[in-house]
């Protein structure tokens, strides 16, 4: 009996038969998928540009547009992504519902308007970071003073080299760039209220990156009793007057060193475009306090109250000066005059008027209803006067409880308020003609009715050591 020999061609034939058998088994699965697709209804030919970007329509609530295929086949053809849409939805859910849920979560996670640290928390996370021009306001209370060793004092052999330190340190930190290193300190702000080695309150600014501290920027803090607030009444359209003040007496060393602070108090204008320019000016120079009412002569007294509130609540000023934007002020002489008249009593200083009677006719007429009394109380002329901080606190408290009498002439109103304060605590009235009411006098403290050109002239003379007038407009 002859033995059959297996040839290579037989192996190829066997492999082919096995392949055909496998295809026949898989063909049933292909038919099942095709049948399932046919059961869905008429096929819609759509382009990826439309189907990829809009949610599929619901047959119960919307209509779809179909196009008859141009092929001669009797079987409708589905786009190849149709089945994958269904399979993806079965695994991950409806993509449009997921997108809507993601949008909802994104809206809920919008940048908050404020964040806070409760109890004794030490770190607060800024969820949205900081963009250019951002600002951070920190409100806190320094903890009780603690002992701190200061090498400089030890070398000077002052006691045991320790001092009591009361501080409120705040740092703005970035994200850690390298494991094992501290995060970069973008800003290190350390106000020391007491206990620095220099024996003066200081404010320290610094930065630290990759454990390397930069050169600290330190500025001396000034005790509250040295502060003076100068409130300047100005109209919203008096840009030239404000610029003249900024270029002249606001450049004095007392203001540049922050021993004295000058601010313009400006009410709104009836014209919107003027208010827009005023807002831009305030943002650029940072020396304007915008008051929320339309500017009128009868409301100037509210500006004076705002000056007192600013000096009491924002600066804790020892003395407050009110002046107009056409008043040139010799800041150094005003501070010296305050110091000479500092007898420990509340101070009211300026060009005082005594026993003045209200005018019943003319431009400055006052009716009986507005002022029924025959004479005004002692008052300082409005272009420039000084009150002490305790008088300002009294005015603010009286205004807060609505017991402050208001009169349209703000300088007379101030005299009225000081007189009321004087009935409970003696006030030192200090008069000087050098607080000029009309124009300028030689060796003036303040000069009134000065144009921007005269302001520049007065400043030029003053920096050359001459306090003389410029009698031209």
TrEMBL record:
<keyword id="KW-0333">Golgi apparatus</keyword>
<feature type="region of interest" description="Disordered">
    <location>
        <begin position="45"/>
        <end position="73"/>
    </location>
</feature>
<keyword id="KW-0812">Transmembrane</keyword>
<dbReference type="InterPro" id="IPR013320">
    <property type="entry name" value="ConA-like_dom_sf"/>
</dbReference>
<dbReference type="InterPro" id="IPR001079">
    <property type="entry name" value="Galectin_CRD"/>
</dbReference>
<keyword id="KW-0472">Membrane</keyword>
<dbReference type="GO" id="GO:1990714">
    <property type="term" value="F:hydroxyproline O-galactosyltransferase activity"/>
</dbReference>
<comment type="similarity">
    <text>Belongs to the glycosyltransferase 31 family.</text>
</comment>
<comment type="pathway">
    <text>Protein modification; protein glycosylation.</text>
</comment>
<dbReference type="GO" id="GO:0000139">
    <property type="term" value="C:Golgi membrane"/>
</dbReference>
<dbReference type="Pfam" id="PF01762">
    <property type="entry name" value="Galactosyl_T"/>
</dbReference>
<dbReference type="InterPro" id="IPR002659">
    <property type="entry name" value="Glyco_trans_31"/>
</dbReference>
<keyword id="KW-0328">Glycosyltransferase</keyword>
<keyword id="KW-0464">Manganese</keyword>
<keyword id="KW-0808">Transferase</keyword>
<dbReference type="GO" id="GO:0030246">
    <property type="term" value="F:carbohydrate binding"/>
</dbReference>
<keyword id="KW-0735">Signal-anchor</keyword>
<dbReference type="GO" id="GO:1901137">
    <property type="term" value="P:carbohydrate derivative biosynthetic process"/>
</dbReference>
<protein>
    <recommendedName>
        <fullName>Hexosyltransferase</fullName>
        <ecNumber>2.4.1.-</ecNumber>
    </recommendedName>
</protein>
<feature type="domain" description="Galectin">
    <location>
        <begin position="122"/>
        <end position="341"/>
    </location>
</feature>
<dbReference type="Pfam" id="PF00337">
    <property type="entry name" value="Gal-bind_lectin"/>
</dbReference>
<keyword id="KW-1133">Transmembrane helix</keyword>
């Amino acid at each position: 009996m002859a033995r059959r020999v297996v040839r290579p061609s037989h192996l190829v034939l066997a492999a082919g038969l096995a392949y055909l058998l496998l295809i026949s088994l898989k063909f049933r699965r292909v038919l099942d998928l095709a049948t399932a697709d046919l059961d869905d209804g008429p096929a819609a030919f759509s382009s990826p540009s439309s189907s990829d970007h809009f949610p599929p329509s619901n047959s119960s609530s919307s209509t779809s547009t179909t196009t008859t295929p141009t092929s001669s086949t009797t079987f409708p053809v589905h786009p190849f992504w149709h089945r994958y849409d269904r399979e993806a939805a079965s695994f991950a859910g409806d993509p449009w519902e997921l997108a809507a849920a993601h949008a909802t979560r994104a809206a809920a996670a919008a940048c908050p308007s404020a964040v806070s640290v409760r109890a004794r928390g030490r770190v607060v996370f800024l969820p949205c970071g900081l963009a250019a021009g951002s600002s951070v306001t920190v409100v806190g209370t320094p903890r009780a003073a603690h002992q701190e060793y200061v090498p400089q004092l030890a070398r000077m052999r002052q006691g045991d080299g320790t001092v009591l330190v009361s501080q409120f340190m705040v740092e703005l930190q970035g994200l850690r760039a390298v494991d094992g290193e501290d995060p970069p300190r973008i800003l290190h702000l350390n106000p020391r209220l007491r206990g620095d080695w220099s024996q003066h309150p200081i404010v320290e600014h610094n930065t630290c990156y990759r454990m390397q501290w930069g050169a600290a920027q330190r500025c001396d803090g000034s005790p509250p009793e040295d502060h003076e607030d100068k409130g300047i009444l100005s109209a919203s359209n008096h840009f030239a007057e404000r610029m003249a003040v900024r270029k002249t007496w606001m450049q004095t060393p007392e203001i540049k060193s922050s021993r004295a602070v000058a601010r313009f108090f400006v009410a709104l204008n009836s014209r919107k475009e003027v208010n827009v320019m005023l807002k831009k000016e305030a943002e650029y120079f940072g020396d304007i306090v915008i008051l929320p009412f339309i500017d009128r002569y009868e409301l100037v007294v509210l500006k004076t109250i705002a000056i007192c509130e600013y000096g009491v609540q924002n600066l804790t000023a020892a003395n407050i000066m009110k002046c107009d934007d056409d008043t040139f002020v010799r800041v150094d002489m005003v501070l010296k005059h305050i110091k000479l008249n500092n007898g420990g009593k509340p101070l009211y200083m300026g060009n005082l008027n005594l026993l003045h009677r209200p005018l019943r006719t003319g431009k400055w007429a006052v009716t009986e209803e507005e002022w029924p009394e025959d004479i005004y109380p002692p008052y300082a002329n409005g272009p420039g006067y000084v009150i002490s901080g305790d008088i300002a606190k009294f005015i603010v408290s009286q205004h807060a409880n609505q017991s402050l009498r208001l009169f349209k002439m703000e300088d007379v109103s101030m005299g009225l308020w000081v007189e009321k304060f004087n009935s409970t605590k003696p006030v030192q009235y200090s008069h000087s003609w050098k607080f000029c009411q009309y124009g300028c006098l030689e060796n003036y403290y303040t000069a009134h009715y000065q144009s921007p050109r005269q302001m520049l002239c007065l400043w030029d003379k003053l920096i050359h050591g001459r306090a003389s007038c410029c009698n031209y407009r």
